[in-house]
Amino acid sequence: MVKLFIDPGHGGTDPGAVGHGLQEKALTLEIGRQIRDILLREYVGVGVKMSRTTDVFLPLTERTRLANQWGATYFVSIHINAGGGSGFETFVHSSRRTQTVKLQSVMHDEMMTRLQVADRGQKAADFAVLRGTKMPAILTENLFIDRTTDAHKLKSGAFLRLVAEAHVFGLAQAFQLQKKSVIPSQNSMYRVQSGSFEVMKNANQVKKKIEEAGYSPFIRLENGLHKVQVGAFSNQSNAESLAAELRKKGFTAGVFRS
Ligand SMILES: [Zn+2]
Question: Which residue numbers delimit the SPOR domain (predicted)?
Answer without folding.
Answer: 184-258
